[in-house]
Amino acid sequence: MHLQLDLVGGISGDMFIGAMLDSFPHLAAALPQQLVLAGFRNLVQLEHQPFNDGILTGTRFKVSPALTAEDHGHRHHSEIRQILLDSQLSDAVRQASLDIFQLLAVAEAKIHGKAVADIAFHEIGAWDSIADVVCAAYLIVAAGIRSCSVSTLPLGRGQVHTAHGNLPVPAPATALLLEGFAFHDDGIAGERITPTGAAILRYLNPTANQQLPRGATLAGTGYGFGSKRFAGIANVLRILRFTAAPPADNSWHEDEIVQLEFEIDDQSPEDLALALATIRASHGVIDLIQGTALAKKNRQTQWIRILAEAPAANAVLTQCFNQTSTLGIRQQLVRRAILDRQELQVEADGRTYRVKAAVRPAGTSVKVEMDDLDTPGLNHQGRQQQRRMLEQAAAAQLGQAHKHPPGGEQ
Fold first, then answer.
1. Of the candidates 18, 190, 284, 401, which lies 20 to 30 Å from 139 by C-alpha distance?
2. What digits encode the pLDDT tens for the residues 24-37?
């Protein structure tokens, strides 16, 4: 299951739970039992009701404390952690709850300059907020969420009142948790993302650019409302849930990489060769291909294509701009299919040769590493004979019929 989160009004713990219950209503009945398993019996009450704000309809979730005000204070991270460790929650729900609180504790510790174990939660240390985290963790696990994507986040404006006094929006811990996320400012004041909402979002680890799994099919929607009202906008978190196509029974796997392309017509061959060698050796570069073409004004130009791992794309772009004279680089995200493969070692004539075995739909192919066929005195015919001998030995080692690969390697 893949979730797309659209933060129309923002995100908080209760908004996330409301949206999940709106999309997975059958999971609501199990939430009270999760609090019993967590040791919160008779400490909080859960409510979820249909809600219409005049714009949209969905679900509003609320945790009501059943404790006196004196018993409803702050708690240290170490205390909350021990409560969860001692709970009867399932291993997956317990671990998700611990992970979300760990994210909060690390952020608070960095903000206040303290050790993680010494962090005292105030607003989020109350039983109702702990219940928010446990309920969110249960819904994530029970719904089988495997991946997530998210819209840009609303920045919000103004200040929020906390136990530490008035703090700017987004609150410091929230801002730290959301480093690396893309924001937008819609001009609406107020706290749009709470620390608990930010920790849940960070735990879900959304992909960049709202990337959906290949073959994703929209299976349903859910709307979770917050308690605040904003002018001109619904204070709602929308989730879109997608199911992915079942994996094919293939002999390959797929991933996404970045393809960079540019042309060079004003850099000397000697200098360009050094530049491309530096780029080729850069972290995250999978391959670099160079060719010639005719560009504008009928100038002969060098055409460059680079394949890079997606997380390293910006670093590779920087290298390209620093090492070459190009003024612009085209980039696109592409999918590739990669055959499952392994490297074998074949002993012959007192030497060890590397042979690559690739699992193809029609059977396994083997191919010796050409760099290893450097025996002095061998001509083309000798190398071909040696290659066939080594590949037959590798095929026998695999216990499969030898098939020559159709063409070169990628």
1. 190
2. 999 999 999 998 89
In sequence order, the 6+-apart residues with CB closer than 8 A to the CB of 262 are 304, 320, 324, 326, 328, 329, 330
Q: How many CA atoms lie within 13 A of 240 on its CB side?
A: 15
Helices 195-204 and 13-23: crossing angle in degrees, nearest 10, is 50
pLDDT tens for 17-75 read 999 999 999 999 999 999 889 887 777 789 999 999 998 999 999 988 765 544 545 67
Alpha carbon 220 to its chain's center: 22
The whole-angstrom separation of Cα 238 and Cα 220 is 11
**Phi and psi based region of residue 326 (left: phi greater than 0; alpha: psi -120 to 50; beta: remaining):** beta
Q: Which domains does the chain have, with CATH numbers?
A: 2-243 (no CATH), 252-337 (3.30.70.1380), 341-398 (no CATH)
First to last CA, the chain: 32
- Provide the percentage of residues in the chain whose pLDDT is more than 90: 51
pLDDT, tens digit, 9 for 90 and up, residues 321-369: 999 999 999 999 888 888 888 888 888 888 899 999 998 888 889 999 9
pLDDT digits (tens, 9 = 90+) for 111-122: 767 676 666 665
Instruction: Give Cα separations from 55 to 58, 159, 232, 254 (angstroms).
Output: 10, 27, 10, 41
Cα-Cα-Cα-Cα dihedral sign, residues 199, 203, 208, 212: negative
Per-chain mean pLDDT for the chain: 86
Separation between Cα atoms, residue 27 and residue 39, nearest integer Å: 20
Q: Is the four-CA dihedral 128, 129, 130, 134 of positive or negative sign?
A: positive
Q: Please state whether beta strands 2-7 and 147-150 pair in parallel, antiparallel, or not at all (unpaired).
A: parallel
Residue partners of 204: CB distance under 8 A and separation at least 6: 3, 5, 140, 145, 148, 150
Do the beta carbons of residue 104 and residue 196 sit within 8 Å? yes
**Residue 402: pLDDT above 60?**
no
The C-alpha atoms of residue 40 and residue 164 are separated, in whole angstroms, by 27
